[in-house]
Design a protein that fits this description.
The protein folds into 2 domains: 1-25 and 73-113 and 157-233, Rossmann fold, CATH 3.40.50; 27-70 and 115-150, SIR2/SIRT2 'Small Domain' (2-Layer Sandwich). It has helices at 2-8, 41-44, 47-52, 54-70, 75-85, 100-103, 131-134, 159-171, 190-196, 224-231; strands at residues 12-16, 91-94, 109-111, 114-121, 127-129, 146-150, 174-178, 200-204, 217-219. It is an alpha/beta fold. 36% of the residues are buried. The two termini are 13 Å apart. It is elongated, with a radius of gyration of 18 Å. Helix 5 (75-85) packs parallel to helix 10 (224-231). The protein has 10 helices and 9 strands. The longest helix has 17 residues, at 54-70. Bound molecules: adenosine-5-diphosphoribose. Adenosine-5-diphosphoribose (APR) binds at residues 17-19, 22-23, 28-31, 34, 41, 95, 113, 179-181, 183-184, 205-207, 223-224. Adenosine-5-diphosphoribose is lined by residues 17-19, 22-23, 28-31, 34, 41, 95, 113, 179-181, 183-184, 205-207, 223-224.
């Protein structure tokens, strides 16, 4: 059914979460061995942690930067980029900060939570590649701390990505969620906005989500990579 919907849809939007990158080797956040099962996000992934616990903050994000530099997009990321080239997919809205959709060749990507591929100075705003963390450079020449260019708990989403995601969700005829627990607002509102604007909503996730009952199709029993390869469009 999903293959038929994809072929018939004139405007398809894919919404990805951390489950899109677990098959690349990166952990997600809330499944059984997810990052937030081991660490409290409010104590490590927040502006509070950046301001009052900077050593632990840098150590945690240095590990995550190593991850996104060492691991690669998997076949599923490349399939989504191919669908875009064939006109089968118009855009991707992602909560992920690994940069893997861009790396796999996708062009229309709204990175709601920013990217771990970049750092910026907390004081003067100067931008750096996140490889600075790998060289042990954690401070700007101005004395400010270098922080990842991601959205921390307590910060608002980047305006441009938010508005692109809103527009795309309103235009979607088919909205496919891949690998998200849909528990973090406001990102989890986009599937609802798409549905309310007449889109068919598909949720592909190994665990139930709070929006399953609202969707037209739910797939819990297949890994994302396997499903995308089976669709072979
Ligand atoms: N195939 C299908 N589903 C998968 C796969 C897979 N290969 N791997 C993991 N999943 C599912 C998990 O079962 C889980 O329900 O992906 C979901 C990922 O959910 P979360 O770990 O909550 O990640 P996400 O929804 O992206 O989190 C949203 O929370 O901490 C913040 O900023 C962070 O962007 C993140 C946001």
């Amino acid at each position: 059914m999903l293959k038929k919907w994809l072929q018939e849809s004139n405007y398809t939007v894919v919404f990805t979460g951390a489950g899109m990158s677990t098959e690349s080797g990166l952990p997600d956040f809330r499944s059984s061995n997810g990052m937030w099962k081991k660490k409290d996000p409010s104590k490590i992934a927040s502006t509070d942690a950046l301001n009052h616990n900077v050593e632990e903050f840098i150590e945690f994000y240095r590990e995550r930067v190593i991850g996104v530099k060492e691991y690669q997009p998997h076949r599923g990321h490349y399939i989504l980029a191919e669908w875009e080239q064939k006109g089968l997919l118009q855009s991707i809205i992602t909560q992920n900060v690994d940069g893997f959709h861009h790396a796999a060749g996708s062009k229309q990507v709204a990175e709601l939570h920013g990217t771990l591929q970049k750092l910026h100075c907390q004081r003067c705003g100067k931008q750096f590649d996140s490889s600075e963390y790998l060289h042990g450079d954690y401070y700007c020449k101005c004395g400010g701390v270098l922080r990842p260019s991601i959205i921390l708990f307590g910060e608002s989403l980047p305006e441009e990505a938010f508005h692109l995601a809103l527009e795309e969700s309103e235009r979607a005829e088919l909205f496919i969620v891949l690998g998200s627990s849909l528990t973090v607002t406001p990102a989890n509102q986009f599937p609802l906005i798409a549905k309310e604007n007449g889109a068919k909503l598909v949720i592909v996730n190994q665990e139930p989500t709070p929006f399953d009952h609202y969707s037209d199709l739910v797939i819990h029993d297949k890994k994302i990579g396997e499903l995308l390869q089976e669709l072979e469009l």
